[in-house]
Structure formats: C-alpha cells, structure tokens
UniProtKB/TrEMBL annotation:
Keyword ATP-binding: yes
Source organism, top-level taxon: Bacteria
Name of the protein described by the UniProt record: Iron complex transport system ATP-binding protein
GO terms for MF: ATP binding
PROSITE patterns found in the cross-reference section: ABC_TRANSPORTER_1, ABC_TRANSPORTER_2
Domain (ABC transporter): residue spans on this chain: 3-235
Taxonomic source organism: Promicromonospora iranensis
CDD domains to which the protein is assigned, alphabetical: ABC_Iron-Siderophores_B12_Hemin
Keywords recorded for this protein, A-Z: ATP-binding, Nucleotide-binding
Amino acid sequence: MRVEFDDVSVVLGGTEVVHRASLTVEPGTVVGLVGPNGSGKSSLLRTLYRAVRPSRGTVRVDGADVRTLSGRQHARQVAVMLQDPHTDFDLSVHEVVLLGRAPHHASFGRDTVEDLRIADDAMRRTGIDDLAARMVGTLSGGQRQRVMLARALTQQSPVLVLDEPSNHLDIKHQLELMSTVRGLGRTVIAALHDLNLAARYCDRVVVLDAGTVVADGPPAATFTPELIRAVFGVEARVLEDRHDRVLAFRRADADIFPDGAAPVPAPVPTESEISS
Ligand SMILES: Nc1ncnc2c1ncn2[C@@H]1O[C@H](COP(=O)(O)OP(=O)(O)OP(=O)(O)O)[C@@H](O)[C@H]1O
C-alpha cells in the first residue's frame, strides 16, 4: 500500500514545524525519516496517523486522503509504534498485544482463536512470549517497546509507522527489530536517530532539517559527509569493507575520529595563493 505526503505543512503552537514536505513510500518498502532533534519527524508522522491535522497539503494511503477514512478503516490500514508509550500500564502484555486486533472486531467482539494465534505469533517474533502474563507497567523500557511492536504487528495493517522504535533497545534487539520490520513486506516509515541503522535497513532515507525535506534517496548516496555536516553539524567518514559500510562520526571541533584516524587536513595555501 502506497503512502504519500503531498506538500504537507504542520503548524504547532503558532509555529510552522513542517514546511511543505512531499515524499512517497512505495508499497512494501522501508523508508527512514532522519534529522536532528526538533526537525519535524514526529510531527510529519503524526499527520499519517491523524494525531495532527496538516495546515496544508494531503496525506494519502492507497490513494485515499487519511482524513476521509473512518477510524476503523484507518486502523486497519495504519499501525503505529510510538517512542515512549505511557498507556496501558494496568494491562498484561498479552492483553495489550491483543488490543491490536480491535480494528478487526465488530463492536464488543470477542477475541477469536485466530486473534489469539496472531497475537502469539507476534509475541514470539518480538521475543516477548515469556512476558505474556506480566503487567506492562512492570517492564523495562526496551521490553515495553517490544510489546508495542508486537501490538502493531498484531494489527496486521499494510502500513506501519515507527517513531524512534529502537531508542530503548540494546544492540541485539535493535538489529532484530529492524530485520523483523524489513522482513514483513509491509510499507514502513520509521523516524530513526541511528544513521547506520537507517542505512542498513531502509530502502530509502528522507532527511528533514528544520521542518524541510532536504534529501531523499538510497542511504549510500544520501548520507554523504557533506550532507551530514550541513544537517547535523558533525564530521562523518565512511568506513567500508566487503561486508559493511558504516559511518564514523566526530564533533566538528574534535581532531580525531573514534578509531584514532585524524581527519584529512584542509589544504595549506601556497604563498602565491596567500599573496594573490
Ligand atoms: N504540541 C506542540 N506545540 C508546540 N510545538 C510543538 C508541539 N509538538 C512539537 N512541537 C515543536 O515542533 C518541532 C518539531 O518537533 P518534532 O517532535 O516533530 O521533532 P522531531 O524531529 O521528531 O524531534 P526529536 O528527534 O527530538 O524527537 C519542535 O520544535 C517541537 O518543539
């Protein structure tokens, strides 16, 4: 299912925090939304899951303006995993994951055997099956984040929105989450801070800076040292071998990279260049 943001602006508290953003997420692809803190990633995503109304432009899912869909229609098409869920603390993990089936039920419908199977499968895939009976409020941040992913998977929507899905996860679970998400074959748009994670798992990355889309393309072509310097204000170096391509970062005012390599010094002007 295709997702389109067409000329979308968002105004919050009297300030335009997203400025005329246009981007398309092709069916079955994973797009990473990256940018500095406050650049508008969450605000743009919120227009897709209708937590915010754009001040301009249209957000479409499968060609339909999301504002024209009923709540149930929208929930069947778009599932959301938020960065810091503070709700559902008084429910068990199993109950929260099963909430993902709600859009598929008639009002006050009961969970079917099929619902239970789908929820169990999602809990297994996210590695939380052993937590099923625990109350969500007693879980660690990373465990809770995996519960929210399981609930989103249980919703079985063709579109998945992830807002910083990995901020509480250890490295193993970050890789597992991104690999699970990639393997779903669904249309995914994810706000991510880790540029290496975005580069490895996303088909495309879209870069926001101060509310404006400043780059959009395949990760390797988009995450250039020049772009990273301009948008994030840090120096980046690409390290590549047969298996991996990773970015190493240093502050603009530091003189070495984490691996001890000195940055390439600026060329020293010759005397004739200075005098000319
Ligand atoms: N309810 C609100 N009222 C006023 N301003 C808001 C509101 N919500 C967000 N903002 C502002 O909108 C801007 C964009 O915020 P947003 O959360 O979309 O950025 P982000 O790129 O997701 O940031 P982060 O990486 O820190 O999560 C920020 O300057 C933020 O302070």
